[in-house]
Hints:
There is one protein chain. The chain contains 15 helices and 10 strands. The chain is of the alpha/beta class and 348 residues long. The strands form 2 sheets. A 5-stranded mixed sheet has the order 2-1-3-10-4, with helices on both faces. A 5-stranded mixed sheet has the order 7-6-8-5-9, with helices on both faces. Helix 6 links the parallel strand 6 and strand 7. Residues 39-266 form the Solute-binding protein family 3/N-terminal domain. Belongs to the bacterial solute-binding protein SsuA/TauA family.
Amino acid sequence: MIAPAITRRSFALAAGAAVAVVAVPALRAQARIEKPRLSLAVGGKAAFYYLPLTISEQLGYFRAEGLEVEISDFSGGARALQALVGGSADIVSGAYEHTINMQAKNQFIEAIVLQGRAPQIAMGVSTKTMSGYTSLADLRGKKIGVTAPGSSTNMVSNLVLSRAGIKANEVSYVGVGTAAGALAALRSGQIDAMSNIDPVMTMLEQKGDVKIISDTRTLKGTQEVFGGLMPAACLYTHVEFVQKYPNTCQALANAIVHGLKWLQTAGPSDIIKTVPDSYLLGDRALYLASFNKVREAICLDGLLPEEGARTALKALASFEPTVKVDKINLARTYTNEFARRAKDKFKA
């Protein structure tokens, strides 16, 4: 019996169906989230430094990517890093320079998406305990508040002081957090100066409690302090995690870049409606003033610039003896692979 002739159209349909049968499972496998439940550590979540994280959480962008993210908030970035190293966190929302510091200790962690393109850290002296301040030399022997010892606020303070010949062991660092406790520590005279992030610093500045002596809340100020671009908050994790859970890392990057895209056009009222009331520290107007001051420091597309990585390494090496420029492989401190795909997806 002769089989019926196969027309060109029926052959094409059959071939298409066969391809679909093969392709659909492949696509599903590619999109499968290997680790849908994650623990994320952050140090001072209410700060603008981590605003993209909060936006992505509050607007449901992590859930939209198939992730269930449990966020633990610590007093500072150094504590969040400890959570990752200790195994109680999968991911950290923290300062990029931690990836360099850890590599200097032969531990490899990698940034997968950038949230801030400037550190947004200001350093100021107390108008109460240092009313006669004239130069950085006056800070020798003083108490300086930072979010937490070893955090990026500590790093910026070290950098600023080193340029005046003051070593880290010639001052006393006090961890004060990033919220009401930081305000109270400065106003009560417990500390003489502070290196911190917004909204805390703008609130102290506008109330006349501090005199700002170094400011990286703008791109111009960052250029003046660091001599170039300086990447700030990012999501980072162990290199092994990135290799084992690439789809999970892609989903995380997608959620953050989605938040960055939203922030590009968000107005003050949008921000107020989205962040928790506790973030406002009791003063809505000052919170919005703080946001306007740091807005340009928020990353646009999640990509970490190569020039910024070099700036961070140079800055750390200038005051941190364990960090040697010729010993650090910057290519192993970050990847733009996930952010690039997320940028294409959301047209960021």
